[in-house]
Design goal:
By secondary structure, this protein is of the alpha/beta class. It has helices spanning 17-29, 51-58, 76-82, 89-99, 124-128, 146-156, 180-188, 201-204, 208-216, 221-224; strands spanning 4-10, 35-38, 41-42, 68-69, 105-109, 117-119, 122-123, 135-141, 164-168, 192-196. The strands form 3 sheets. Strands 2-5-1-8-9-10 form a 6-stranded parallel β-sheet, with helices on both faces. Strands 3-4 form a two-stranded parallel sheet. It has a two-stranded antiparallel sheet with strand order 6-7. Helix 6 links the parallel strand 8 and strand 9. Helix 1 (17-29) runs parallel beside helix 2, helix 1 packs across helix 9 and helix 6 (146-156) runs parallel beside helix 7. The longest helix is centred in the first third of the chain and has 13 residues, at 17-29. It is globular and about 45 Å long.
Amino acid sequence: MSGRLLVVTGTGTEIGKTHLAEALLLRLARTGLRVFGAKPIESGVGVGRSDADRLASASSFHVKHPRLALRAPVSPHLAARREHTHVDLPVLAAGLLDARNGIDLLLVELPGGLFTPLDDDALNVDFLRLLPCDDVLLVAPDRLGVLHDVLATTHAAPDLAFSGIVLVAPSLPDASTGTNADELRRFTGIRVLATVPRALPAELALYPAVDAIVRALRLARRDLDPT
């Protein structure tokens, strides 16, 4: 059995992707599903708790997969260059595909934004194109400027089918906060699945907004494991 593959990407870094991914994993794990969260490429590892460790802790099932953990807290391509490390995207992608065996859902979080460089000649979007995704979730902050960021991201990757957009409440709301969901629907034609409040992942997993994402992407047990 090969589980569903959900990729979580975003319009930039430090916008709440990992918090949301943790909450989704915790929400699904509570139903008894075998879910695993991976961040196959990560920079800044060693400065606090890694995102990969956070996702693994929120998972209900654990599998081995290739992972590139880079120390410098900079863009992955710069961190890899400083460590004289080659980012082998096909190997990482193949490892993720193998990791789907025997589980219900594999959630993969990409580092930074969709066009963050991973190597001198490869971007996140190139890595994403190597993965046979069932769903691609685009995360963005619910603040001024998000219309440009989402439009630029989606227009630059017209071949990608985004399953939905999730807005994350910013630390400092502005005059546009709360209005962006309707405008994004109008300008992109992509579903805005939810606007997620700021909360710890364990608390966020209990919010109706996370349930709305689960329902919209058909990630409930009856959808992933009909038997």
